[in-house]
Design goal:
Length: 449
């Protein structure tokens, strides 16, 4: 095991990693921007180093400054968390060229799975079901129209390097496809410095189901079952749960085995999430791979009893997975609500400000992962998530009941948050009866109360 690591991230995930380091006897070095100078979690790290100004480009995305901090602190490894540089193969390559282990997969696996087109080719080789679409990038309007007419409308344009819904457009006819193509390419270039896009058949009212996998450096790969992440806004997740409430055991088995097959073929080690679209007939189609820990990893931890951050550290240090697939069992049901500083009544506009009141819930079956506290200042520089409320109970119905209770206890303000919307969803008959899909919230929601 490492003796000292640097955490190249901030907020909730930085605190989560600091806690894991404490439990494993590993010294943690936190880096921070000027905007995060007063963050309480920095006091829990063994050392904290300022790496630049508030904008992420000056700090959490600034590779030379992060590497300099790692060398000054003489660390053995860097944990990138999620977001920022967590899926940046160039960063992983620089870390290892500086003799610093990157707590994540190999550069080769990141490149193979991180780009959507490359990962689709690998999925095809592994006989993982794929949505019909273009054979590679689409660059011209004629190419786009030819593909769409072959597979049938509606279609979706996707950025190869994309994420978070950026560089994505749905088209229902030739006219909308032509205008959407240029818009998607421009957005992809602005967001990822890569304008490459491709086209797929658009599944109407699908569920978003993903499989958590772990692999070690000795060729052993296992899955930790699936999560359902269908409650979304603007292609970004709001609620996650495990297990998926609608798939049958055979689909679960096939889904999880497909994810393991793909990861094994890529020579993958560390934690990853293999994402799928599931249609109304329980047919699943490969979507993409996230080569990092996910925001929603706690729901998997709750239903399997495994600590995924611990495993990331152990695997990166060279340890073998001591778990066989038969050792992993689903225990009960877990639900996670992302608590964001956003106004649900104003198209989820970010709401920076000070949390004059902040009283998170507790009690049996409740876990709250957050770096926030009363009088915490939410700045405009970073993601609006201020915490993750997770419940774990013997059944899904009991988990929903506990989540309702926990949300009703939660006090946060005067900053607007998504708590009111989550309260509404937990009482909605569609959610209770698992009749949701990735477009459900935007189609049906009424103003939060």
């Amino acid at each position: 095991m490492f003796s000292r690591i640097l955490i190249a991230n901030r907020g909730e995930i930085a605190l989560r990693i600091i806690r894991a380091c404490r439990e494993l006897g590993v010294e943690s070095i936190a880096v921070f921007s000027e905007a995060d100078r007063d963050a309480n979690y920095l006091k829990l790290a063994d050392q904290a180093i300022c790496i630049g100004g508030g904008p992420a480009a000056e700090s959490y995305l600034n590779i030379p400054r992060i590497i300099s901090a790692a060398e000054i602190a003489d660390v053995q490894a860097i944990h990138p968390g999620y977001g920022f540089l967590s899926e940046n193969a160039h960063f992983a390559e620089i870390c290892r060229s500086c003799k610093i282990e990157f707590i994540g997969p190999s550069v080769e696996s990141m490149k193979m799975l991180g780009a959507k087109l490359a990962s689709k080719e690998l999925a095809k080789k592994c006989k993982v079901p794929l949505t019909p679409g273009s054979d590679g990038p689409v660059t011209t309007e004629k190419q786009a129209v030819d593909v769409a007419q072959r597979i049938g409308y509606p279609v979706i344009i996707k950025a190869s390097a994309g994420g978070g819904g950026r560089g994505m457009r749905v088209a229902h006819n030739d006219i909308s496809l032509k205008s959407s193509l240029k818009a998607a390419q421009s957005e992809a270039e602005a967001a990822f410095k890569d304008s490459t896009v491709f086209i797929e058949k658009y599944h109407e009212e699908p569920r978003h189901v993903e499989v958590q996998i772990l692999g070690d450096k000795h060729g052993h790969v296992i899955h930790l079952f699936e999560r359902d992440c269908s409650v979304q806004r603007r292609h970004q997740k709001l609620i996650e749960e495990s297990p998926c409430p609608v798939i049958n055991e055979q689909t679960r088995k096939d889904l999880c085995e497909a994810a393991v097959r793909l990861a094994r073929e890529a020579g993958y080690y560390s934690a990853a999430t293999v994402e799928f679209i599931v249609d109304k007939q329980n047919r699943f189609y490969f979507l993409e791979v996230n080569t990092r820990i996910q925001v929603e990893h706690p729901v998997t931890e709750m239903v399997t009893g495994q600590d995924l951050i611990h495993w990331q550290l152990r695997i990166a240090s060279g340890e073998k997975l001591s778990l066989a697939q038969d050792d992993i069992h689903l225990n009960g049901a877990a639900i996670e609500c992302r608590i964001n500083a956003e106004d649900p009544d104003r198209n989820f506009i970010p709401c920076p400000g000070t949390l004059d009141e902040f009283v998170p819930p507790g009690g049996p079956g409740v876990r709250f992962d957050s770096h926030a506290y009363q009088n915490y200042r939410i700045g405009p520089n970073y993601d609006s998530m201020i915490g993750k409320l997770i419940v774990h109970r013997p059944t899904r119905a009991a988990a929903i009941s506990t989540m309702r209770r926990a949300l009703d206890e939660f006090r946060a303000g005067p900053v607007k948050t998504t708590i009111s919307l989550h309260r509404q969803i937990m009482r909605d008959k569609d959610f209770i009866n698992a009749r949701v899909d990735t477009g459900w919230l935007e189609r049906t929601r009424t103003p939060a109360k």
